[in-house]
Amino acid sequence: MINISQPDLGAEELDAVREVFASNWLGYGPLTRAFETEFGEFLDVPAEHLIFLNSATSGLFLATELLGLGPGDDVVLPSVSFVAAANAIAATGARPVFCDVDPRTLNPSVGDVERAITPRTRAVLILHYGGQPGDVKAIAAHCAARGIPLIEDVSVSIASAIDDRRCGTFGDIATWSFDSRKVITTGDGGMLYVRDAALSRRAKRMAYHGVADRSAFTTASRVARRWWELDVQEVGRRLIGNDLTAAIGRVQLRRLPAFVERRRVITEMYHSLLGGIEGIRLSPPLPRGHATTHYFYYVQLDPGIRDQVAEDLLARGIYTTFRYEPLHTVPLYRADGVFPGTALAAATTLLLPIHQGLDDTDVHTVAEELIKAVEHRSAPTRP
Ligand SMILES: *Cc1c(COP(=O)(O)O)cnc(C)c1O
User: Fold this and answer.
1) Quick one: pLDDT band at residue 379, thresholds 50, 70, 90?
2) DSSP letters of 7-60?
3) Which atom, in ligand 1's list, is nearest to the CA of 181?
4) For residue range 275-326, what is the model confidence (pLDDT) as tens digits?
5) Which of 12, 202, 217, 314 is deepest in the core (most CB within 10 A)?
6) What separation in Å is there between the alpha carbon of 60 and the centre of ligand 1?
7) Least confident of 71-75, 260-264, 375-379
């Protein structure tokens, strides 16, 4: 089976884990802080504003809570979003309000976001589809002008940037994912960035039992006379990462440029193998100055054959899929409304396997089988 995505872990990660075992400190400690520092350098933001969490979903839930969302509030998000985004909004009592996306890039334009804004809109939550930065710069400017906080779900766009400014640094709060399907992984894990200093300090408390000074929980604490006393300031949860997963993350972050380069090469290969084939539409070129993570590779097919082509490929051992099933069609979030771009994207888009472990032969196999399936399914049926 050729997988759609696959982790890439090796000897270096194993060595890093071995060192953590030897240190006998598994919790949130020096390696977690080192990972946050390195991530801050990578993003070019102060490391104090970053928190290594146990998942991106934890980050999204923390973000909506930090913004004080609740009943009566609206949050705009593209219908083509991962379900965790809508869940994080709904969990506060606020209402997810969906906007349309461009049928070719599957990202919302600033106009799509603007049209969904109501007088009760208290936040906007976007992602960068498959790693394409999209209209994030204009959306961030629009939100800033209206005083509406912007949350960026950067789960799949760790290496994405516009004019060398990284995605995740355009909005007010951002969350990255290191789950096992993402470009870099820690098994489970996420990173949260909070631009505002006071809010980021609050995020740290809320990520760990509401405790202001975490040293009460560490054996290394020698500061207070009664170091077991807890300075609890508000209701918190337990969302932090640990040194074991941070150790893996540090190695993966160092390997990220090589991962993205391999994915770029695979993208180019698919483009040249599939370009000009009747019935297969390639994804649009990136605007000037945009850099992508190459998280997804997708083509667009006639809606009449897309599902059959996916089935044919699965029968040939090639896993393809579509992300993200539009949330306005999911039972819990079913919403009326006209989303023509979303509907077209959802009917035509097919994601092909892409990960740094995919070799050239696999890429050729996928392209050849796709071309065959499209030809076969497009052929007029004989009477
Ligand atoms: C994977 C993913 C998430 C959730 O990440 P976890 O770390 O598994 O919680 C959220 N949003 C998007 C766009 C994702 O792809």
Assistant:
1) confident
2) ----HHHHHHHHHHHHHT--SSSHHHHHHHHHHHHHHTS-GGGEEEES-HHHHH
3) 1
4) 999 999 999 999 999 999 999 999 999 999 999 999 999 999 999 999 999 9
5) 202
6) 9
7) 375-379
Average pLDDT over residues 261-286: 98
Structure tokens at 213: 């000074």
Contact 129, 106 (CB under 8 A): yes
Q: Tell me if 57 CB under 6 Å of ligand 1.
A: yes
Q: Check if 175 has its Cβ closer than 6 Å to any atom of ligand 1.
A: no
Q: How many CB atoms lie within 10 A of CB 231?
A: 13
How would DSSP label each residue in 137-169? HHHHHHHHHHT--EEEE-TT-TT-EETTEETTS
Calculate the average pLDDT of the chain.
95
Q: Is the CB of 190 under 6 A from ligand 1?
A: yes
Determine if ligand 1 sits within 6 Å of the CB of residue 177: yes
Atom of ligand 1 nearest to the CA of 59: 9
Round to whole Å and give the CA distance between 194 and 198: 9
Question: Domains plus CATH for the chain?
Answer: 11-252 (3.40.640.10), 257-378 (3.90.1150.10)
- For the cut 80, the answer to whether the pLDDT of residue 218 exceeds it is no
For residue 59 and ligand 1, the question of a CB distance below 6 A is answered with: no
In terms of DSSP bridges, do strands 95-99 and 74-78 run parallel, antiparallel, or are they unpaired?
parallel
Cα–Cα dist 36/56, whole Å: 15
